[in-house]
Structure formats: structure tokens, C-alpha cells
Specification:
Radius of gyration: 19 Å
Distance between the termini: 18 Å
Bound molecules: phosphoric acid mono(formamide)ester
Order of helices and strands: HEHEHEHEHEHEHEHEHHEHH
Strand content: 5-15%
Oligomer: single chain
CATH architecture of the largest domain: 3-Layer(aba) Sandwich
Number of domains: 2
Helix content: 40-55%
Number of strands: 9
Number of helices: 12
Largest sheet: 5 strands, parallel
CATH superfamily of the largest domain: Aspartate/ornithine carbamoyltransferase
Shape: globular
CATH topology of the largest domain: Rossmann fold
Length: about 325
């Protein structure tokens, strides 16, 4: 067990080794059990986390804030647009100053080509850990909760389990591609055979794809890319179907929507779920475009684990905070 995580940033999924991720999950299960038993676990008493948001959130904000309180500390909600961040506070200033006020700095910044660099610049100037609450490249805490949930449903040994990471149609907005990118990086390390499915215009970042291929090779797992959702879902153990924008193709919202609108049949519905194994699970980080991205029958149906998945955000993040802060 690798426990030397104090002071460490968690910005990319690969910032923690496989052994360190296992430690995070062990701690997460311990904290989950303690909360269920009503056992106090205030290991971060007197500590304060800054939560800086450049983009809206429900689950991430709620789970980090509740998690800090349950660990005996406090989380401060800070929005970029209501602070001087919107008037020119730089990453260096923020890292230096918040690093002196707080014991950890969590940031959500999903702007294309800006968010990840922003987090890393703050981390460079900060004396306390920086935690990624989602950038345009990674959503690592979501991915930890996803891994935790899959292990709860399928067992700790995931070797040869087939995980489908599929694009799905949405009409609300061009969603970030950080969730599928984190999944294809993290899951091969735990033995899962990953099938990535998307229409041709919805490629992920080439560098992330190269890393995912290398990890699959290193860990002797499958990594295939298909452009057909039905083909992907065949015999799946896990179907993780969600939307992301065609961001490697265009950043124009109207053009992106025109491209997306060609693929309205890429919906997670009963027919797709029926192609998977009898005990296939359906996952989504939420929020979903209900009855557009996924049918209500699937989202609320017996294969869906979305609420357990959302709950595990709390436990996984508490583990990261308790280990790093
Ligand atoms: N899954 C997730 O990150 O949810 P929020 O956008 O509501 O935080």
C-alpha cells in the first residue's frame, strides 16, 4: 500500500500511481463504512479547502463541501465571476495567496486550452495541494468514483471486463470531453478491456489516445475504437454512454450543434442495454439530457447505477482530501 500522498496535487488521473489509486479506494471504502456506521472521522479538523469554480456544478460542489465538513474541516465556495479573479488576479497570485489561507485548492475550469494550464500554474505557485474538480482534459475525481462503483458492482478484479465508453447525443450544450478521457486512461490500469465508441467527428485528444493505447498495451488489456454504438455495446459489462462536444473538429457552437444533430440515434436506450451482458450496468456522471442522451427507462431502470456513482464522488473525494491535505 502506497500512502505517501501528503501535499500531492491531483490534476491528471495519472498523477497517482495504480498502487496509490488503490490506497485512495481503500480509504474511500473505510470512510464510506464509517459514515454508514455514524463513526466520526474528523481527520481534517481545522483545515479549509478553497473550491474555485469557473463553471457550474451540482455534484462536485456538493460532494466536496459535504466531504470537508464530514472530515471536520470547512470548504469555501468561491466563484471566479464574483471575485477579483475576473478582474485580473493571476494564477501565480492565486496560488501564492490561497496557498497561505487554505490547506488545499480545488478548481473547476473547463475552458478549452485554458483550464488545465490554469490548474497547473496555480499548483506551481501553491504550497498546498491543488485538486482538479474538472478541466477540459481530465475529470479525475469523477473517474475515481466511477472505478469505485464498478468494483462495487463487478468485484475488485476487473480483468477482462468489457467497458464501453460511448458518445451519446445531447442537445443542451457541447459538453467537455474530460470524462471519457479520464476513463480511457484509468480503466486499463485496472484490467478492463475498453471499447471507445463515437461518430467520426467526436475524436478525443490525440495525446490522450496515445497514452490510453500505451497503457492498454502495458497492462495487457484491450483498447478498441468503433464508430457504431450497437457494435460497441455487444456483450458489455459496463456501458458508460454520455455526450461530449466535437471539440477536436470545431469550437463553433452552431457548427458543433449541426454536427451533433446528425446523430440523434446515439441514445442509451433499452435496445442498446439489451446488447450487453445480463448484468450490464449503465453509468453516467450526470447531469444527463433525459430522454435525449439516455431514456428515462434506462436512467431509472434496473441496470442504472448513476445514484451509487454520484454518491461515491463523496467517499472518493474524502479519501483524496484526507490523504493529500
Ligand atoms: N458529474 C459532475 O461533475 O457533476 P457536476 O457538474 O454537477 O459537478
Amino acid at each position: 500500500m502506497q500512502t505517501g500522498l501528503k501535499g500531492r496535487d491531483f490534476i491528471s488521473d495519472l498523477d497517482f500511481s495504480k498502487e496509490e489509486v488503490k490506497t485512495v479506494l481503500d480509504v474511500a471504502w473505510d470512510l464510506k463504512m464509517k459514515r454508514a456506521m455514524g463513526i466520526s472521522h474528523a481527520s481534517l479538523r481545522d483545515k479549509v479547502l478553497a473550491m474555485l469554480f469557473f463553471f457550474s456544478s451540482t455534484r462536485t460542489r456538493g460532494s466536496f463541501e459535504a466531504g470537508m465538513a464530514q472530515l471536520g474541516g470547512h470548504a469555501a465556495f468561491i466563484e471566479s465571476r464574483t471575485t477579483q479573479v475576473s478582474h485580473g488576479d493571476t494564477e501565480k497570485e492565486l496560488g501564492e495567496i490561497f496557498g497561505r489561507y487554505f490547506d488545499g485548492i480545488a478548481i473547476r475550469h473547463v475552458d478549452w486550452g485554458i483550464g488545465n494550464r490554469y490548474l497547473n500554474n496555480v499548483a506551481e505557485a501553491s504550497r498546498v495541494p491543488v485538486l482538479n474538480m474538472q478541466c477540459e482534459i481530465y475529470h479525475p475525481h469523477q473517474c475515481l468514483a466511477d472505478l469505485m462503483t464498478i468494483m462495487e458492482k463487478k468485484g475488485r478484479n476487473l480483468r477482462r471486463k468489457k467497458m464501453v465508453v460511448s458518445w451519446a447525443y445531447a442537445s443542451s450544450y457541447l459538453k467537455p470531453m474530460s470524462v471519457p478521457q479520464s476513463l480511457i486512461l484509468q480503466m486499463p490500469r485496472f484490467g478492463m478491456d475498453v471499447v471507445l465508441a463515437h461518430p467520426p467527428e467526436f475524436q478525443l485528444m490525440p495525446d490522450i489516445m496515445d497514452q490510453a493505447r500505451d497503457l492498454a498495451k502495458k497492462h495487457h488489456t484491450g483498447f478498441d475504437v468503433v464508430h457504431d454504438m450497437e457494435e460497441a455495446c455487444q456483450d458489455a459489462d459496463v456501458i458508460y454512454a454520455k455526450s461530449w462536444g466535437p471539440l477536436m473538429t470545431t469550437h463553433d457552437a452552431d457548427e458543433g450543434k449541426r454536427i451533433q444533430d446528425q446523430y440523434k440515434d446515439w441514445i442509451a436506450d433499452d435496445a442498446k442495454i439489451a446488447l450487453g451482458k445480463d448484468d450490464v450496468i449503465y453509468m453516467h456522471p450526470l447531469p444527463a439530457d433525459r430522454d435525449i442522451e439516455v431514456t428515462s427507462a434506462v436512467l431509472d431502470g434496473p441496470h442504472s447505477v448513476v445514484f451509487d456513482e454520484a454518491e461515491n464522488r463523496l467517499h472518493a473525494q474524502k479519501a483524496v482530501m484526507a490523504l493529500t491535505m
